[in-house]
């Protein structure tokens, strides 16, 4: 008889109301759990209850926009988060084009301010395993510098990953953000951690989004992160996006600005290689 105590199966039972009949560990944090009605769900154990709450609130907020596909969530219980399991397929140009349309709709749903947390989500949130503080601001360049770029730059310096002299390059970029950021945009509803690993290409022929670090931000940030870490058929994603919500002229010159935050997060989490990429990106942006 299946019985795993207070593990993934027990969490799935509590949150779905169905008995768990089996589980398959995918990693230290993820398990696929089979329920007694034949459904399969994904069970994630976060590092803390607040991390699980932040992710659950983000998934709900993205779903409420009615634009992108996200797994149905069954809620969180302490560090446990349970969602539907998405059967995996292969990327296709058609799905990528549709993802572009969907992202445009998500961003257009908006947010109260830059840095707004999803309703029910914590101010002290997360991007991956790193802390991310949701502090609201009215102007994107100042907010982005103060609450996204500089906190991670300071931590990278404190950790010895970036030197003080190198940090000055990124600080100069932050000072020039008002001139480099392009036309003012209203706060968009962002996925917030949109690298290719958080795009699931489903067996149903659609793209699904998981693991958000959702907040109010600049819509070009999601697109720049897709470009930073690579995305199948990115040209089709962008073509679909711009057919619905054209981007301001000069977007390619601004990609590096929007990549500074994820690059510094990765520098803090994974070390010097990403720090060097952040520095080269900052230098290139300053030379434009």
TrEMBL record:
Gene3D superfamilies: 1.20.1270.240, Phosphorylase Kinase, domain 1, Transferase(Phosphotransferase) domain 1
Key words, A-Z: Kinase, Transferase
A UniProt-annotated Pfam family: Fructosamin_kin
Chain segments carrying region Disordered: 1-24
GO molecular function: kinase activity
Phosphoprotein keyword on record: no
Superkingdom as given in the UniProt entry: Bacteria
Recorded family membership: Belongs to the fructosamine kinase family.
Name by which UniProt lists this protein: Fructosamine kinase
Organism of origin: Streptomyces pseudovenezuelae
